[in-house]
């Protein structure tokens, strides 16, 4: 009995330490965002501000084009999230339920593309979009992220767990394949769709590398790129930067908390069948 209690104490202690390691930087950033002193890293470092203030959050809106950056991020993220949910579900249904020549080869090629590091594809994507005159435009920001192979794989795995009897009964009743997809498979696929939506939203909302390549004017910046532009070599307003960073992280945190039940169900059920 004593050994079990000791193991439990050790487990909780390790869990507490790991939790502190993960959320510690976030809590320190939150503390800096309420600090009125610009020299936040002067020794001794104050982990809690002596005079908390909301001035930094006000300055984010008043001194920066934060509204424009927010609009850009919301537009890009919304379009990419909805397009990924729809096209990944449609492609996943096609690979999971339809028989057509070359299905396995095409799906294997799609999965093989995941072995290519994303950074290698940056130059080809930039060249293509430059030829299409889409650099520094919403099209250039949105087009490369309309659908992801990982999301297609996730939806395919989920659709393969649905009993074939349901599909056969619907086809016997005269249901077309698209109607089968739209009216039967989609309503019962909410956990997987939620997982795809959260994955896509988080990736698109926090994307930095592609916007910094394809955007060169301030009016086309997304929130991560806009916040990064505030960091200078000689002087950085860390409280202002942290206030903006905290605001950026709130939507992702809220969506994950609200839909975490669907997210866990979607990931778990999609891994039931290989």
Which labels suit this protein?
mainly alpha, 274 residues, 13 helices
Structure description:
There is one protein chain. The chain is 69% helix and 0% strand. It is mainly alpha-helical and 274 residues long. It has one domain: MetI-like fold, CATH 1.10.3720. Helix 1 crosses helix 13 and helix 3 (66-97) packs antiparallel against helix 10. The longest helix has 33 residues, at 238-270. The two termini are 41 Å apart. The relative contact order is 0.14.
Helices and strands, with pairings:
Layout: H1 2-33, H2 55-63, H3 66-97, H4 103-112, H5 122-131, H6 138-142, H7 149-159, H8 164-172, H9 177-185, H10 190-205, H11 209-214, H12 223-228, H13 238-270
Helix pairs in contact: 1-13, 2-13, 3-7, 3-10, 7-10, 7-13, 10-13
Concise synopsis of the structure shown:
The chain is mainly α. Helix content is 69%, strand content 0%.
Total number of domains? 1
> Biggest β-sheet, characterized?
none
CATH architecture: Orthogonal Bundle
Instruction: Determine the CATH superfamily.
Output: MetI-like
Distance between the termini: 41 Å
Strand content: under 5%
Q: Low-confidence stretches at least 5 residues in length (pLDDT < 50)?
A: none
Q: Might you state the CATH topology name?
A: MetI-like fold
The number of distinct β-strands equals: 0
What percent of residues adopt helix (DSSP H or I)?
A: 55-70%
**Helix and strand composition category:** mainly alpha
Q: Output the number of helix runs.
A: 13
Order of helices and strands: HHHHHHHHHHHHH
Globally, the shape reads globular
Q: Please compute the radius of gyration using only Cα atoms.
A: 23 Å
CATH class: Mainly Alpha
- Round the mean pLDDT to the nearest integer and report it: 84
């Amino acid at each position: 009995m004593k050994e079990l209690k000791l193991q439990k104490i050790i487990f909780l202690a390790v869990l507490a330490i790991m939790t502190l390691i993960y959320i510690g930087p976030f809590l320190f950033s939150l503390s800096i965002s309420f600090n009125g002193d610009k020299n936040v890293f002067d020794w001794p470092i104050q982990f809690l501000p002596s005079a908390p203030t909301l001035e930094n959050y006000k300055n984010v809106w008043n001194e920066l084009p934060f509204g424009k950056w927010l609009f850009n991020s919301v537009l890009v993220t919304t379009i990419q999230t909805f397009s990924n949910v729809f096209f990944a579900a449609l492609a996943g249904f096609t690979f999971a339920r339809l028989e057509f020549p070359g299905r396995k080869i095409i799906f294997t090629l799609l999965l093989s593309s995941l072995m290519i590091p994303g950074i290698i594809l940056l130059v080809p994507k930039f060249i293509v979009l430059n030829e299409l005159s889409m650099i520094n435009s919403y099209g250039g920001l949105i087009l490369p992220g309309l659908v992801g192979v990982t999301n297609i794989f996730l939806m395919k795995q989920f659709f393969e767990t649905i009993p074939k009897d349901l599909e056969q009964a619907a086809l016997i009743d005269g249901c077309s394949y698209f109607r089968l997809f739209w009216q039967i498979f989609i309503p019962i696929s909410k956990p997987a769709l939620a997982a795809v939506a959260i994955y896509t939203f988080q990736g698109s909302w926090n994307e930095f590398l592609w916007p910094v390549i394809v955007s060169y004017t301030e009016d086309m910046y997304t929130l991560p790129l806009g916040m990064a532009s505030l960091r200078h070599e000689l002087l950085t307003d860390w409280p202002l930067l942290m206030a903006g960073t905290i605001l950026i992280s709130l939507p992702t945190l809220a969506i994950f908390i609200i839909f975490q039940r669907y997210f866990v169900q979607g990931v778990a059920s999609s891994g039931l069948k290989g």
